[in-house]
Amino acid sequence: MDGSGIAIVTGGSRGIGRAAAVGLAEQGFTVAIVGQDASRVASAVEEMVGAGHDVIGQVCDVTDPPDVALLGAEIAAVGPVELVVNSAGVMSDRMAKTLRASPEEWRRVIDVNLFGAIHLIGQFGPAMVERRRGRVVNVSACLGRFTGPGLAGGLAPYRVSKAALNALTLNFAAETGFGRRGVLVDAMCPAHCRTDMGGPDAPRSAEQGADTIVWLATRDAVGAQTGRLWEDRQPIPW
Ligand SMILES: NC(=O)c1ccc[n+]([C@@H]2O[C@H](COP(=O)([O-])OP(=O)(O)OC[C@H]3O[C@@H](n4cnc5c(N)ncnc54)[C@H](OP(=O)(O)O)[C@@H]3O)[C@@H](O)[C@H]2O)c1
Hints:
Layout: E1 6-10, H1 15-26, E2 30-35, H2 38-50, E3 55-59, H3 65-76, E4 81-86, H4 103-131, E5 134-139, H5 156-175, E6 183-188, H6 206-218, E7 229-231, E8 234-236
């Protein structure tokens, strides 16, 4: 993809989503930053506009279908969406092992990390399928894998939400023909990054975490592997 058109980045007001928004704007996308907190969205937009980027801000709770429908209507007035990056996410309570997490905690985390992506795909996916053009990048986590770092347990709602996000990715990729009908759908692990979620001592910057998002958004579609989980631009086991 040549980096033109509209890219929606949920969670674009902070952290990895914000770094992805900057990286995508540098590649020529018109970026719509989506976040819940109006002041954080406004300051991210102000900073990016100041740097000369083409960016708009949209306040939207991704867990709320009417809010996402409103987002869809506002973006439709701007133009067709080429890319959705689902980066909005929340972490579990640190003590939330399976037997300790309350039903409210399961719902809180799964609502943002899984239903947020479901709502965004439901809103913008149909036009991508219709146009036979578009990409979805779901920002997952190694903790949601069924291999390697996914096998340690703990942070149960978070791990389960990301495993489900991976399943959503694979399912939607299969339903769109694994790229054969012009739509690429992938998940990626940013690894541990210095953000509000990752904390100040994480080994990677948000920009390093966002690199694979920007790469997935802009790589050549011809012959591209899709319906995969990626880390550092490489496919990894789910
Ligand atoms: N940081 C890491 O080490 C790490 C590692 C692996 C995976 N990840 C994943 O990477 C993604 C980004 O993480 P991060 O570290 O950048 O997190 P972060 O700094 O905590 O930022 C989270 C972002 O999500 C937005 N958000 C949360 N709930 C929302 C909602 N209901 N509606 C709309 N936006 C919402 C926040 O917006 P507001 O400011 O409006 O709340 C914020 O922009 C997440 O999906 C996370 O699970 C992170």
